[in-house]
Amino acid sequence: MSAEACLVPAEHSRLLKFSSALFYAGSSFLITVVNKTVLTSFRFPSFLCLGIGQMIATIVVLYVAKMSKAVQFQDFDRSILLKVFPLPLLYVGNHITGLASTKNLSLPMFTVLRKFTILMTMVLEVRILRKTFSKRLICSVGAIVFGAMVAASSDLAFDVQAYTFILLNDAFTAASGVYTKKKLGAEGLGKYGVLFYNALIIVIPTFLASAFTGDLHKAVTFQDWSKATFVFCFLMSCIMGFVLMYSIVLCSYYNSAVTTAVVGAVKNVAVAYIGIFVGGDYMFSWTNFIGLSICMSGGLVYSYLTFSNKSSQSNAQETQEMKIHISEDSSKKYSVY
């Protein structure tokens, strides 16, 4: 009876982990397509203003939810800044570099170069969260990075600025994921507080920056505001910005930061191959395609090693063995006395 009772929470936990990962994968896929439509198809001139729209959507949705008692998180005070730092800086860096790279980079190459996020996340988790990884996981990450380098080496539409933005976006995403996992344990904040105060702290500085650089004027005078299709896509991007950030926090809450990065890589399998046939901005070459396939294969192997039952069982066995050793040591200590 007690054994069955112990199994129920474990099954429930696995369901939450898988559901949050699936939610993040779907959200990430949809916002990539929507942002690509707004910035490339409609040629919206300001990725910065699109990011501001996503921040405003996050603030409005969570504030209304808090006022209606649908969610709860700490009211603002001086301690908030210390609790969330440096997440706001990483948040705005992730938004700006991500939207900038989406604008000038083909969809398949965008998804390939995003694979470097996994390597960066793994390094940061080792250094900041003191985690360890098996050799098989490290080798699979090596395959992902190698495939990305092969695919990028023959990119016929090479853009130095776009590549710089995407690599910076990888770094910001990795750091944001690791620190989000670390900050979720902050007392009083929780998932919703982290999202709300991140957006609230940085939206005004970002708005002032867009006005200073002239991006705000370009966005306001954009000629397609009168088109219902563009307005719909813009609003969808703003809403999906909130949904994506929530799904990232949720996935990091139930899993680890590196698992969240792995889920993004698995999602990229669908995005990259769909982008070859849809979108019209992919310039085919065999080297690029082979590198893309190596990269995706590495991502699938990593995902299998991470989520397979065999890995879970081995971890459980190691934990059980550790408990046995501890109990034996403690019994010896007590026998001495």
Sequence of secondary-structure elements: HHHHHHHHHHHHHH
Number of strands: 0
Give the termini distance in whole angstroms: 36 Å
| H/I helix tally | 14
| Overall outline | globular
Whole-number count of domains: 1
Mean pLDDT: 77
Transmembrane segments: 21-38, 44-64, 136-154, 160-180, 192-213, 225-246, 258-278, 284-305
Pfam families: TPT
Main location: membrane
Domain Sugar phosphate transporter: 23-303
Describe the structure.
The chain has helices at 2-41, 47-67, 79-84, 87-104, 107-113, 116-128, 135-153, 160-183, 190-213, 215-220, 228-254, 257-277, 286-307, 309-336. The protein has 337 residues and is an all-alpha fold. The protein has one domain (14-309). α1 packs antiparallel against α11 (228-254) and α5 runs antiparallel to α12 (257-277). The longest helix has 40 residues, at 2-41. The protein is globular and about 50 Å long.
